[in-house]
Design goal:
Largest sheet: 5 strands, antiparallel
Shape: globular
Distance between the termini: 62 Å
CATH superfamily of the domain at 46-143: Beta-1,3-glucan-recognition protein, N-terminal domain
Strand content: 15-25%
Structural class: alpha+beta
Radius of gyration: 25 Å
CATH class of the domain at 46-143: Mainly Beta
């Protein structure tokens, strides 16, 4: 009798396992997986500084994203835990497939350091994203009342188009060199210039060879930067990113010009000038 029960028990166990496997293949285990991260993917955030005052930013709505917000600080002081937020806004309104935020009163100038945290809402959870930096350049400043990209009238240049313009169109290359010479003259007036740049990225650990490979891969994936990949000499850890050295100052300025639409590569000299590479220290602990 006991043997019969034992056999029956094993049969029941096998049948139960087969049933669970069958249901799992049908997606039952998805019930156990958390959906809290769905709807928190963010496209690149575009910035526009309004002249004489004001700031506008926007991002394309990703699937399942219900709300978009920002906590932005202008020239934050390193190590200060309590610093008033200069632009703290959020919205659930979608215009032409984008979330728009605008502050009419804030004053932003060329050369200012913007540190910001993006906040997303998927209707169930709210997520604060990794802090990021942006150095305000002249090309971000627009006369007030004019939008840089009215919907349906302007098609942004793709990386391929940018590369073709710079490396195949003599007029575009001349314009690029003129901008570089202007930057050189300004840098000489400031008295500081190095061969270092800063790549904002979530991955900052690992041997130096791995870090250099990450930077090289970033360049290889962008047509406009690919011809300058050979200029990268070394890389090292930096808070929230990688500090890397290029062969010469002209290459550095070319990279800054070609990469400024991405907002990922920053001028290391401007960051170190204010002694603030650890941007996380400027925000309250969560």
């Amino acid at each position: 009798m006991m043997r019969q029960c034992s056999v029956t028990s094993r049969v029941c166990t096998v049948l139960l396992c087969l049933a669970v496997i069958g249901v799992a293949e049908g997606g039952f285990l998805d019930w156990f997986r958390s959906n809290k991260n769905k709807g928190h993917d963010v496209c690149r955030v575009e910035f526009e500084v309004l002249d004489p005052q004001g700031l506008r930013l926007w991002t394309t709505q990703k699937p399942q994203m219900k709300g978009f917000g920002v906590e932005l600080f202008i020239n934050p002081v390193h190590g200060r835990k309590q610093q008033p937020c200069n632009v703290c806004r959020n919205t659930t309104e979608i215009t032409h497939g984008k979330f728009f935020l605008q502050d009419e009163s804030v004053i932003v100038k060329s050369g200012d350091i913007l540190e910001y945290v993006i906040i997303t809402d998927n209707g169930k959870t709210v997520q604060r994203h990794k802090p990021r930096k942006l150095i305000v350049d002249d090309f971000l400043i627009k006369p007030k009342g004019r939008c840089a990209c009215p919907p349906g009238t302007v098609t942004p240049a793709t990386p391929t188009q940018t590369a073709q313009q710079v490396y195949e169109d003599p007029t575009a290359e001349i314009a690029l060199l003129e901008r570089i010479l202007e930057r050189v003259s300004k840098k000489c007036a400031e008295g500081t210039m190095s061969n270092y740049l800063f790549l904002q990225t979530d991955r900052v650990d690992g041997p130096a060879d791995d870090l250099k490979k990450i930077v090289l891969n970033y360049f290889q994936q962008r047509d406009a930067l690919k011809p300058l990949a050979g200029s990268i000499l070394s890389a090292e850890d930096g808070s929230d990113g990688i500090v890397f050295r290029v062969a010469n100052i002209i290459d550095k300025l070319k990279i800054l010009e070609l990469a400024r639409q991405e907002n990922d590569i920053l001028d290391y000299d401007k960051l170190t000038a204010i002694g603030d590479m650890d941007i996380r220290a400027s925000f309250d602990d969560e």
